[in-house]
Design a protein that fits this description.
This protein is mainly α. It has two domains: about 55 residues; about 80 residues, no CATH class. The radius of gyration is 34 Å and the shape is rod-shaped. This is Lipoprotein.
Length: about 150
């Protein structure tokens, strides 16, 4: 009888010890998961802040670009019309960036090569005086875009 009682007592002691160990392991795992969750949340918040700053910087650059563009007066009506339309295109691009409309920005970026072709074609038809103005004007736009 003593052996049976001692055997049962030792089994109960081992069961109690292993349950306690399991509970401690479970508690540590839960704490580690909570800490990882908190760190992931902090990282996400930091990424959101950095993304917002990048968007604000892009918006400010576009605003500076548009406000820095002064369209010269060309003797050619065709050149004047194209310069005015291109300035409007740049303003529209700035508004799209400012509004955060990715679709609109993508759409306007797709038109960039068309604008380059139109501008190169028009530049070939200019008088020497207009060609100088055109060159200086497009150079200024390029410099503002590069900033």
């Amino acid at each position: 009888m003593k052996k049976v009682v001692l055997s049962l007592a030792s089994v109960a002691l081992m069961a109690l010890t292993s349950c306690n160990s399991f509970n401690q392991t479970k508690q540590k795992a839960t704490e580690a998961m909570e800490q990882a969750k908190e760190e992931a949340g902090d990282a996400m918040n930091q990424m959101k802040e950095e993304a917002n700053k990048a968007v604000e910087n892009a918006q400010e650059k576009m605003k500076d670009l548009v406000s820095g563009i002064e369209v010269p007066k060309f003797s050619s009506d065709e050149a004047q019309k194209l310069a005015d339309e291109y300035t409007n295109y740049l303003k529209e691009s700035a508004e799209a960036v400012k509004s955060g409309s990715a679709e609109k920005v993508k759409e306007l970026q797709a038109k960039a090569s068309e604008w380059q072709a139109k501008m190169q074609e028009t530049a070939k038809k200019l008088t020497p005086e207009d060609a100088t103005k055109w060159s200086e004007w497009t150079k200024k736009i390029s410099e503002l875009q590069a900033e």
